[in-house]
Amino acid sequence: MGRVAIVSILVIVAAVIGSITSYQVKPANYAKLVEKQKKFDEAFEKEFYVEHTKYVETGERSERLEEMFEHMRQKPDMFRLEMDNHPLPYLTAECTACRALVTTYLTYRRVLGWDRDRIAAQAASTCETLNILTPANCLKIVNKNIDILLFIIDNRPSLTAQTICGIIFQSGSCVLEDPTFLNWSINVQAGGRPITASKTSPNRGAGDLKIIHITDVHYDPHYRTGYNAVCGEPCCCREGQGIPANPADGAGEWGDYRDCDSPWKAVEDAVRAAARQHPDAAYVYYTGDIIDHGVWETTVAGNIVSMTRTYQLFRDVFGSKPVYPVLGNHENNPTNVFAPSYIDRSDFSARWLYDFSADQWSSWLPTATQQTIRQGGFYTVLVRPGFRIIGMNNNDAYTFNWWILYDPAYLQAQLQWVHDTLLQAEAAGEKVHILAHIPIGAGTSYRTWARQYRRILDRFWDVITAHFHGHTHADEFNVFYSLANPQHAISAGFNGGGTVPFSNYNPNYVVYYVNPQTYDVTDFESWYFSLTEANRNPTRNPIWMQLYSFSRDFQLSNVSPASLDGLVRRFASNPAELRRYWEFKVKRGDPFIAAGCNGDCLLNHLCEIVTNEANDDTKCNALAAIFRNLDDELFDEEK
């Protein structure tokens, strides 16, 4: 998942960063700060190139170059955070680093003619200097990505540092300006019901369907109980990282809060617990990310073994119950990278993953889904008369998918297919659930893609009844507002959280109640266990408990977009209620609760609920105006 520069920062940090997401509220003078930062960045990148070139020529780093590297280094805990959860000062430094490093490496390649091996060696050195991975693992992650990046750079000579960093950050002085990346669109057919008010839906009823939502198991075959959980790398608790001298630094039996993925016994326990607790569930949704965060050493063969074992577990546990899966950004190798279908180089193409998924999913999905799964990892299926699922592969629109830099318009094809499928569903009188790994509209969703999806949603708001996401590991929801009529809430997205504790979370899964006529979500509840308590009793299976029942705990009649929009406005005027939502969102993970969440933190989480597109701050600003006037003491806490 991602952070700063080409082949070193682009590759390394984008691959290893964690998953927590949150919006960062911008100060009132943000525009002036950005203009000032742009000037600083321009001067910094020019000076960095001069100083780094001297270092390459002499082998000695000047005092000034050391200062510049220090400016680029990040806090260690930033590895576990998604880009849009980095505090603004960190984002500013990361953008500066991105522009400086990308400009330098582009010059080395295009002007000085550096070959692949020289670029790789220098990039690995930069990785080591910035303390991102161990020297050996820096070289591994660079070698996994460099050929793709150099192919893109060599074949796109007009690609600049501003555009590359603008795709990744989409904000601040790293803002996207290239019209090639901003101006593509899909064809949206006129029609549909006019949007005249926020969307309502039925209350929960006795005959509602139940759907289990499991996501982000992140099974790590290298996880070892007692091994180092404070290893200093982005993913710990692994056999190659040794046993620490202090037993308290060792990995727990059932997982660990400290940047660790899941042992198999924890994956199996979560799936079996969901099935055991909810035998009356009609369907199961799995929204991606089976593979671990040790991205410097993943392989196609290893990923296949982990995915095969996990899918077989779902078959064994749920039997004939339908499971509807989608791909996560970690499933491919290298991580995050999903090439256009016309890229047929075997070392670049994701075809192996699509063919594998088509074969594995065939036990749950009809033969008619095979073509689009093999084409791009997406599908549609008629679950029952009147009810359809669209399983998207929106990892292609993740801002750390390097192929966006090669051909941003290749994302049109799947979006157009979604539109056309919804058009057919509308004609047939069907309602649709959308499954997608990356939360649609999140800050790491490519902005142009998100804008085009919003056009689709405006057109088919009464056909799409809900969205289901993963990726963030947070138990959260978001509200979609009409692009044309932003005062109206027209859809909702529900995140299943994750059974993995990476990082600081308790494991969970979610259960939805769905009206059997309208297929609206009427209510949902989350189930979790305390990782601290489970690891204190390592020989006993974890005790799963209900974390919340949403309508009950927030006193709602239903969870329609209109109802959730009202709740968000309640949050803005009631910090105690917002804080309760935050506790549920982080699943009462002990490290989160101990650290707390002050006013700025709560406001960031509030704004994330209503942000549908990078840099669209309209809803956030309105809520912030209410929230900041409540109690200044909220913003003066040390925590």
Automatic annotation (TrEMBL):
The superkingdom of the source organism is Eukaryota
Q: What is its main location?
A: secreted
- Name one molecular function that GO assigns to this entry: acid sphingomyelin phosphodiesterase activity
Gene Ontology cellular component annotations, sorted alphabetically: extracellular space; lysosome; membrane
Q: What EC designation does it have?
A: 3.1.4.12
Q: Which GO terms describe its biological process?
A: ceramide biosynthetic process; sphingomyelin catabolic process
Could you list this entry's UniProt keywords, alphabetically sorted.
Answer: Disulfide bond, Glycoprotein, Glycosidase, Hydrolase, Metal-binding, Secreted, Signal, Zinc
User: Where in the chain are disulfide-linked cysteines found?
Assistant: 95-174, 127-138, 231-236, 237-260, 597-601
Q: Which residues are listed for Zn(2+) 1 binding in this entry?
A: 216, 218, 289, 473
Instruction: Write down what this protein is called.
Output: Sphingomyelin phosphodiesterase
This protein's species is Anopheles epiroticus
- From which lineage does this chain's organism come? Eukaryota, Metazoa, Ecdysozoa, Arthropoda, Hexapoda
